[in-house]
Amino acid sequence: MKKRILIAEDESIIRMDLKMMLQDHGYEVVGEAGDGDRAVELAFELKPDLVLMDIKMPKINGLQASTIIGQQLDLPVLLITAYSQKEFVEKSKQDNIVGYLVKPISESSLMPAVSVALHQAENAKKLKKSIRTAQDEIQKRKLIEQAKGLLMEKEKLSEQEAYKLLRNQSMSRQLTMELLAQEIISKYAD
Ligand SMILES: [Mg+2]
Predict the structure, then answer these.
(1) Which residue ranges does the record assign to the Response regulatory domain (predicted)?
(2) How many Å lie between the centroid of ligand 1 and the Cα of residue 147?
(3) Sheet harboring 50-54: ordered strands across?
(4) Residue 136: pLDDT over 80
(5) Ligand 1 center to residue 27 CA distance, Å?
(6) Do 72 and 155 belong to one domain?
(7) 66-75 CB burial, b ≥16 within 10 A, e <16
(8) Could you tell me the pTM of the whole model?
(9) CB 69 within 8 A of CB 79
(10) Is 4 in contact with 48 (CB distance < 8 Å)?
(11) Once rounded to an integer, what is the mean pLDDT over residues 27-33?
(12) Distance from the CA of 123 to the center of ligand 1, in angstroms?
């Protein structure tokens, strides 16, 4: 599937140029914005894979737009900047800013930057997902431990007996261990 890119750049000639270069390389340009407000609006509406964002734009600037997009949508942004703003960009530590390009932008600088940015974003997404899975797993184990502890205490069971009871009930009632644990915890909570 084609990667979907949103371009935010107030100079229409540059915007068109970027669009053509991206399309020539098989990317889909899903939206074009000429100011920061519109960039945010389109990012919400289109949820692209990547936003190419000029910094100096009317209304809210590209950095402010990137911050909003990062906080609310967690979309990667590749910044476009004039040479004079280079250091400013280097200092910006917004998580979702995956890189920057200095104008004038040539095809040979744009294409690798876009490809790396998309790749990084993909990896970051995977990483976040695996962290979430790990956190869920820890949470689940905590619940099961807690339920087991309650059964041991209230029902005077050994650890093994408590665990066995949990496992048997989970199977016979076709409940996940987690749900069963929650049920037991709330039962003894009253
Ligand atoms: Mg500009």
Answers:
(1) 4-118
(2) 59
(3) 28-33, 4-8, 50-54, 77-81, 97-102
(4) yes
(5) 22
(6) no
(7) bbbbbeeeeb
(8) 0.73
(9) no
(10) yes
(11) 98
(12) 30
